[in-house]
Amino acid sequence: ARQSMPGMMETVLNIGLTTNTIQGLIKKTENPRFVYDAYRRLISMYADVVMEKSSGIEPPDGQGIRQKLEHILNTFKEKNGLKNDTDLTAEQWEYISGSYKQEIKNTLGAEFPDDSETQLQGSIEAVFRSWNGARAVSYRNIENIPDKWGTAVNIQSMVFGNMGKNSATGVAFTRNPATGENHFYGEWLPNAQGEDVVAGLRTPNPINEQTKTAETQDLPSLESCMPSLYGQLSKIRTNLETHYNDMQDIEFTIQEGKLWMLQTRVGKRNGGAAIKMAVDMV
Predict the structure, then answer these.
(1) By the 8 A CB rule, do 171 and 253 touch?
(2) Which GO molecular-function terms appear in the entry (predicted)?
(3) Which domain holds residue 103?
(4) Going by C-beta distance under 8 Å and a sequence separation of 6 or more, which residues neighbour residue 217?
(5) What was the pLDDT predicted at 1?
């Protein structure tokens, strides 16, 4: 959008995975567990964003398709004694993907598309429609953003934070948005995609040792687990603040040991933090 609207616009990840392309990605990566994990994520997000919300379907019982798919996964994990999503094997994710598609057909009366172009077109239309979604409209009213501005749709090649132990994803602020202190502040998760960090599905880890709290004291930081990549990210943090002369809200992914920057935007902050940042940056 012309003005950042954090969390208001829809996103669909991993578009293009089909029963045919899956085999090619498995051959290329030699990592079937990653591929089927990415596939089930696509199925869930596409069903939620494109097939239900964008189509104007209101679940009669108040439980959307995404909640029903999460119930399938949670029930499977409970029956098989699995605690975390990262504990599932390739075969188990393949089974979950099939269960997801059957539930989508039963609940929404349509099949998840097994065609890359159909997935892409449906996702583009859904993001455009999300400009007029209830959350986005309410946000614009609060922030005095004109409805007539409209939005663009970004289509990006994927980088994957869920390819294994040396992959990760995270979000961060170049300064503490609550206090305004000049401390690099954020959260990350190994072997995950961005939604995992913000959706509350897993407890995120602190990005560094300095910003650990009593609740996160025992969780590993990115600084301790991947010191070289944390160093790269810290340099980028400095460069972004120097360029924009403002606190930035950033998203990043680490794919098999390589850091990728996904997004930067001016970060939200409270009143006290805004004053401190303004004074410190003079």
Answers:
(1) no
(2) ATP binding; kinase activity; pyruvate, phosphate dikinase activity
(3) 21-149
(4) none
(5) 66
